[in-house]
Design a protein that fits this description.
Structural class: alpha/beta
Mean pLDDT: 92
Number of strands: 6
Low-confidence stretches: 1-7
Number of helices: 6
Strand content: 5-15%
Helix content: 25-40%
Order of helices and strands: EHEHEEHEHEHH
């Protein structure tokens, strides 16, 4: 017979010994459509995760992408492709490159990610051909998560899109790597509005907490292990002729 686990059971011993992750760096990028200092409901939920990480000793940087003069495109420096200005390489990329954890946050419009979120994904893709010190793609060894807010459907759809894109370019995604809050479907209060119930929502708070700790746990594991082993995934070695056991002409053919 299955054991009945009560929702009101006492915390386990593990819950009383929170680890410290002082050696980790995280960057949170808010893809709101609102420039600072306008209130961003997405930032309100992201701040919950940020407080958890800073409480665990993680160095956290946070920015709104729309506050920076970022060009559209899929190349590292769009000034080389017709744009007069592009702050990506100078203002945003150094924070991502130095971070162990990247959390992408954004609003939901028409059930999907904002245009700014998609712009960020495209600029991350622009750097995906760069290498780390092992000759792997540059995002190897980094961990990714996602946070969304809105008052319509779309949290899971938005998370699927963002997290797939992140893992495709090299980020590692831990369990339960997304969190979000949705108000009543249709016009109504947003996350930080008085009476919305967002900051008190147990489901959202639990998911945000689990996501934050899982990101830190996995980032620490990877950092302590020296990242992901380079055997079998080094683009530089592949270009040099190494095939890591791959045989294009197996004998059974």
């Amino acid at each position: 017979m299955a054991t009945d686990i009560s929702a009101n059971s006492a915390p386990s011993d593990a819950a009383s010994a929170a680890p410290s992750y002082g050696g980790l760096k995280a960057v949170y990028i808010n893809c709101t459509l609102k420039k600072s200092p306008e209130v961003s409901h997405t930032q309100g939920l992201m701040d919950t995760s940020i407080r958890l990480m800073r409480g665990a000793g993680v160095h956290v940087d946070s920015l709104r992408l729309i506050d920076h003069d970022i060009a559209l495109g899929v190349y590292p420096d769009m000034r080389e492709h017709g744009w007069a200005t592009d702050a990506w390489l100078d203002e945003v990329w150094p924070l991502i490159e130095a971070a162990d954890i990247l959390v992408i946050g954004g609003p939901i419009w028409l059930g999907d990610n904002s245009s700014v979120t998609r712009m960020l994904i495209e600029r991350l893709y622009a750097m995906s051909g760069e290498f780390n010190e092992k000759g792997q793609y540059v995002y190897y060894g980094k961990v990714g998560g996602a946070i969304f807010t809105g008052n319509e459907d779309g949290v899971k759809h938005s998370a699927m899109s963002v997290l797939y894109s992140m893992q495709h370019v090299g980020f590692v995604i831990p369990p339960a790597a997304d969190a979000g809050w949705l108000g009543a479907i249709g016009p109504g209060p947003s996350y930080l509005d008085e009476g919305s119930g967002g900051p008190e929502n147990d489901f959202t708070n639990r998911n945000t907490t689990f996501m934050s700790w899982n990101l830190m746990h996995l980032a620490s594991i990877l950092k302590n292990a020296g990242g992901i082993p380079a055997y079998g995934n080094s683009r530089k070695d592949w270009n040099a002729g190494e095939r890591f056991g791959f045989d294009a002409n197996p004998e059974y053919r």
